[in-house]
Here is the input.
Amino acid sequence: MILGIDTSLGTAVAIADADGAVHAEAASSDPLGHAEIIGSLLQTVLTDAARGPIGQTSAPQPVALTAVAAGMGPGPFTGLRVGIAAARAFALGRGIPVVPVASHDAAALAAMLADPFADLPRFAVVTDARRREFAYTVYEGVDDDGLPVRVAGPALVKRDEIDQTLAGFAAERRDVTVIPAAMVALVAARSLAADRVAQLDEPLYLRAPDVTPPAPRKKVGS
Here is the structure.
C-alpha cells in the first residue's frame, strides 16, 4: 500500500493499494493551513486504513506501507514545502522510499478514471496559482503503463490568457480545486510497477518564492 500526500492546493492524504483500491482518505480545502492539519489527517487515514478498503468491513489489521507518494506541484511555495517535508519525514521514519508525483498527473488520472470507457478529448488540468495566474498541464490519454500522457506543461499563464493558451493546444479546460491523494498514490504505484519513477528532486514551484535571501552587504573601506 502507498501513502499519498498532496498540499499543492488544500491538504489531501490517502492510502491506496496498487490496484487502486482506496483504504482511507482525508482532506482539507483550506489553502493556508497545511502545517496545522496534516498531522491529524495522517493519523486519521492510518487509523481508518487498518479497517480495510473503503466500503468493506473487516477486522482491523496493521497497515503495511511500501512507499510514500509526494505531490510535487505545481503549487505555492509554502504549501508544497509542508507536504513534501511531511512525506520525506514519514518515509524516513518507516524506512520506505518517497515517490515524487506531479500533482496535475494525479488530477488527470482521476478525470480519466471517472469514466474509463469514455474517449476523452485532449484536455488541460488548470489550477489556481494565485497572483492572478493559472497553472496548467495538457494531457491526451494514457500510455501503456496507465500513466497520463503530457502534451504540454506544467506552465503558468495569466488568468486572462488561459483560454487563448489552451485553444492553441486544442485542449478542453478542466478547472481543478482538489488534488485527490488517492490518485497521487495510484500514479506512484503505476510508476513503480513500470520502473518509471519521475526524476522530480525539486518541487514544481513554477515561480520564485516570495521571500528571498538578502543581498550581501557591501564592504565599507576603513
